[in-house]
Structure formats: C-alpha cells, structure tokens
Amino acid sequence: MDITLEKASDTNASLKITLTPADYKPEVDKKLKDYGRKVQLKGFRPGHVPASLVQKMYGKSILVDEINAMLSKTVSQYIRENKLQVVGDPIPDRELADTIDWDNQSEFAFSYTLGLASEFDIDFSDLPSVTQYEIEAGEAEVDSTIADLQQRFHAHGHGEEVADGDTIYGELKQTSTPEGADAFTAKTAFPMNQMAEDAKGQFVGKKKGDVVTFVLEQAFPDEKARANATGVKKEEAAELTGEFTFEVDDITRNEPAELNQEFFDKVLGVGAVSDEEQFRTKVAEIIRGNYGRESAQLLRLDIEKTLLENTPILLPDEFLKNWLLEVNEGKFTPEQVDEQYDDFTKSVKLQLIKNKIADKADIKVEFDEVLAVTREMVREQFGFAGSEDEEMKKTIDRIARNYLMDEKNNGQNYTSTFNRVYDDKVIEFAKTQMTLVSQDITVDEFKALVENR
C-alpha cells in the first residue's frame, strides 16, 4: 500500500492511496472461502460449490466491499496517526473512482480531498485576563426576594371591599332567558385576575351583600375563564351570555406570609434558621448561589471568546462550504450556507482549540466519569437527591446505564454526555492556566451586563 499526502496550501491537501493485491487479496480470499462454505446452490451439496463459481457470483461484490472498508480504515488511521487537523469529511475523487475496471484491474488508485486547519498553538501566558464576577446580594435584592417568597407562601385573608386580585364568592343569576328555558343560577367564585380589565370597575369596591348587574361575556370574554367562573364545561359556557347578577357573599385575598418561624421553616426547612437576621443571611447566600451559576456560565463564555479571539486559525472556506452543501443534501442553499458560515467556523475553531488544549493537558474522559454525570442527572430529574439506600443506588445506576446505552438514538445520549464532560474538563483546565481577575458586582449590575452581552 502506498499513501501520499500532497499539500496544495496550509488548508488544502490531497491524500492518494494505491492498493496492490498484497493489501486486499488475503482478506478477499478468506471471505470467498467463507461464502463457499455457506452458499447454497441447486445441484451442489452445501460447502461443495466450486470456488470458480463462487468467484464468478460473488467475487466482485466482495472485492468492492473489502476495498471500501480498507479505504475507510486507512484514511481514518492516517489522519489520526499523523495528527492532521482535518475539518469536514475527506471527499473522495469520484471521477477517478468511476474509471476503475473492477473485473480486470488488480492495482487500484484512490484520491481524497482534505480540508485542513492551519497550524496553531496556544500560549496561555500571552492571553489577556478574563473577569470572574462575584455577585453581591444587596439589601434591595434580599428584600425583593423575601417579598416574592412571602407572596409564594401567602396566607388567605378576608376583605371588606373587593379589590383587584381578590376572589369573590357569591350567587350568580341569569336575569333573562329564552322562552321556555330555565334561568341559570349557581353558587360560584369569580377570580378577579381572570376578569376583563374594563369590567373590573363594576366589582371593585363592592361589599358583602352588594349585588352587581353585568353582562357575562363582557366580564369573561375568554370561554375558558367563563367556564371557570360559572363552574360549567367550556362548551356549555359558550352558550351562557347576556345579563346576569352577582350577589357578593365573601371576599378572599392572598396576604403575604408573616416573617415568623412557620414561614422560615416552610422556605428553608424546619430549624434551618431561628430569626429574621439568620433568614436574611441565608436568603442572601441562596441569591449568590443562584447567580453564581449564571456567573460561571458567563465566565465560560468569556474564556471561549478570549481563546477564539487570540488564536488565529485559517480554514479551507471554499472546501467547507461545498462540504456543507453536500452533506446536507439540498437542505440549504449556497446563500443560506454563506449566511450561517461565520457561526459555523467559530464552532469549528473553538473545537479545534479545545482539542489542542486536551492534547497538551492529556485530558481524557473515561466511561465511569460519563456514568457519574448521568447518575447525577437522574437524581436531579427524578428527585433522588440526598442519601439513598443500596436499592435506590441500583435503580439510579440502571436508569443511567439504560439512558447511555439507548440504541434507539444510535448512541447519541452517550456521545452528548461524553462531549459535555470533555468540554467541562477542558474549560476547568483552561481556568487554571489563564489569568482570572475577580470583580465584585451587584445583582442589578450583573443583570445589565448579561443583557448587554
């Protein structure tokens, strides 16, 4: 076998492969013998079909299959062993392949066009610093969060007058009906937040015992809200229209929870804190933790941006555009490829950079690491967090393994999880090599920063 790489430029090359009988004949002969033992042909006992007849019937297809398999393996192995930074897939020279005479040739020549990324290196010491934001939860943010929690864990109270947001209970009566039909009447509840804005004024300010006359479909134009307000099915509510009266029997509203031990226990767990000061401290920690995850994500994006902007890499643009059109088989036009090409090349370059970092740092991902991440995903998804007994651990492990080995999606679950673990390890290594500058920032400043990005 003869393999030659011919580089036309830093980003374009041809890989030429010549195969002789010594390369493929042993395996082809072996498969022909296997066929001879298995083939069943009328007039011959199994295993006694003449070799010449087996050759005539199956020789060409076995030869073609064997050479195609050998080429695929050879190209991949050559690229891997020579550490070629190939982008896209090698494209075979189909015109050259079409000239092959499979019946008479014994030596075969093939050629592949390769798209290459230019040589590059990463010197972390030359990279600019990256800002790592430390989120400070100020008093205003703590106050706002506690107010939201008080609303979430609200208590039920009763009002003297109807206000927007209340729920009013009473008797609903239809004032006019078609001849021969019974008037609709029901004890029901009106959630004011489901009522049309221009109808609320008829109810706001009313007290217990007051009677409001109104048009039902104007107060509840949405049929689903009307069904909820009347207590009938949606299709029946569509028929309820016209003038109605509503006599107010009771007014209820959600009142913010009081800052007491019962509230603290509901929010943080029984006994986690014992007074308001401790509660505020804990809330501030939670806010920092929540925004800390967003800060970590922003740091990751900034690291990737810094690596991209400071690592010049040339790509075979024409080759890649043609390759994108070919592999997508008519799904995109040349104009659409041009439109999305910049984003595509950024992702290609970023992956090349990460691969280079992984190679330098000897970063590898083992199956146990992928499995551990998947187990954690199962715990979070199914609420299995915390300590588990042995039976629970076995259940989690079984679900995780089934997810990773799911054959229905051709191993995509394993591949995507592997890539996530790989990516995380590369970024974590980059953090140890780059200069990270901490900067304290308020929640509002951080929100504005993220919005501007």
Automatic annotation (TrEMBL):
GO-annotated molecular function: peptidyl-prolyl cis-trans isomerase activity; protein folding chaperone; ribosome binding
SUPFAM superfamilies referenced in this protein's UniProt entry, alphabetically: Triger factor/SurA peptide-binding domain-like, Trigger factor ribosome-binding domain
GO biological process, one term: 'de novo' cotranslational protein folding
Occurrences of domain Trigger factor ribosome-binding bacterial (ranges): 1-148
Coiled coil: none
Gene3D superfamilies, A to Z: Trigger factor ribosome-binding domain (3.30.70.1050), Trigger factor, C-terminal domain (1.10.3120.10)
PANTHER family: TRIGGER FACTOR CHAPERONE AND PEPTIDYL-PROLYL CIS/TRANS ISOMERASE (PTHR30560), TRIGGER FACTOR-LIKE PROTEIN TIG, CHLOROPLASTIC (PTHR30560:SF3)
Name of protein: Trigger factor
